[in-house]
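Re-run with default settings, no changes from the original entry. Doing this only to confirm the output is reproducible before filing.
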Amino acid sequence: MDSADTDWDGVRLHVVTGKGGTGKTTVAAALALALASGGHKVLLVEVEGRQGIAQIFDLPPLPYEERRIAVAPSGGDVYALAIDPEEAMLEYMEMFYGMRRAGRALTKMGVVDFATTVAPGFRDVLVTGKTTEAVRRRGKDGKRVYDAVVLDAPPTGRITRFLNVTQEVAGLAKVGPIKNHSDLVHGVVKSPETAVHFVTLLEEMPVQETLDGIAEVRTAGLATGGIFINMVRESLLPQATLDAAAQGRFDIGDLALGLKSAGLADGADATSLAEGLAEEIVEHARRTELEQQERESLGEAALPRYELPLLTDGVDLAGLYELAESIRTQGAA
């Protein structure tokens, strides 16, 4: 990006991963909007074939082509690409061998499926290759076509192998187009222009998978980005009240008196209502305490953290822009 006042100045490929159910695609889409804000051009790439981007932006299924899908706050455009491995292979064959027509014939014969089944990593190379090509691409004026590319990547448990698969495929071909292609992909993925961001919830399993994923990515020599803590619930109670409730020092009598003075209940009804509310408060306090413990665990990774609010009405376009603004104001974009 051109701005020098963001946490990821110089990063042009933002790889977003996370455990299933953490809202990985939603965060990737919001990050793309945030990065495009202010007049930038950003490409949002999907690789898992779920058409998640189309669903989030309330669009028909996306074809295998780059098309504008949203205008970012303060101007700027978000383009999207849903990568189809078969089409990527045809493009690859035309680019390196001039064999697109022959490639279509091979597709009809099932050779493409055969190739990606025998060498499963080759499918990932096609996907990462198309993504990194968008990162490197320049227009006729010599300028980068996209200011940034956001990749909605596979889940955390598969991310290191997905990004490192070019090394495995390169080992099968020591020279020629495949080797050159793998080297180009590897050069982008391992460069300072790439960062792997992690999406998590303040729950034990997603946090542990995030920490494990960060360790694996670092061991593989890939650059870690930030941690996006999604669906954070805002606490509406003072910390002193939460501490008292968590420690079993919450006074139901005081709560009943408060309900009476507010005119919300009277007599036995006030006591009964206070008891029910007290149970909810204690549960909320304990959950808040556990969430704070998970925050402290994430702090061990020593990465920037960004907290995104829980959207009680679900993720619609308005909510997506709200998340993008939260990402931007926290300095991630």
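Residues 239-287 form one domain. Strands lie at 13-18, 41-46, 67-71, 77-82, 148-152, 194-200, 224-232, 305-309.
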